[in-house]
Amino acid sequence: MSNPKITLTYQRAIYIALAFILFAFFQYGKNKWLASGHGLMDAWKGATETDWLLTITFFDGGIFTLICLTWMVYDLKNQRLNKILKILFFLLTLAFGAAGFFLYLGIRHSVTYPPVEKSVSTTDH
């Protein structure tokens, strides 16, 4: 396979910037949560026992991530990316939710490969 050509449009740049901003915001929120003396199991306990808003947020985030991953699986089948990148984008979205998904949207059509040259047979049958 030949070297890919990478193009970056305004819309793709916004998707990539949004992905990094969301990722930074999520990391900041997680670190503030942990620094306040809570653990990750406290979030699960709060979501399942006491805090309905947290429960709704977990379910909403989970449903959104499942929809994104389902769409990504179908979309990745049509992309000319190598298998490692396809798996990487899938795992990023699974681990980081919207941040990974927006990164994928920013990259998905920006990597294009030159057309494959077909050899023409000169022999007659």
Describe this structure in words.
This protein is mainly α and 125 residues long. The chain has helices at residues 10-35, 40-50, 52-78, 83-96, 98-107; strands at 5-6, 111-112. It has a two-stranded antiparallel sheet.
**Unreliable stretches covering 5 or more consecutive residues:** none
The total of helices stands at 5
Measured on Cα atoms, how large is the radius of gyration? 20 Å
What is the approximate shape?
elongated
The domain tally reads 1
The portion of residues forming beta strands comes to under 5%
SSE ordering: EHHHHHE
Q: How far apart are the first and last residues' alpha carbons, in Å?
A: 30 Å
Main sheet? 2 strands, antiparallel
Q: Which sequence of strands runs across the widest sheet?
A: 1-2
Structural class: mainly alpha
What average pLDDT do the residues reach?
A: 77
Total DSSP E strands = 2
Percent of residues in helices comes to over 70%
Question: What's the structural blueprint in terms of helices and strands?
Answer:
Layout lengths: L4 E2 L3 H26 L4 H11 L1 H27 L4 H14 L1 H10 L3 E2 L13
Helix pairs in contact: 1-5, 2-3, 3-4, 4-5
Tell me briefly what this model is.
The protein is mainly α and 125 residues long. It has helices spanning 10-35, 40-50, 52-78, 83-96, 98-107, and strands at residues 5-6, 111-112.
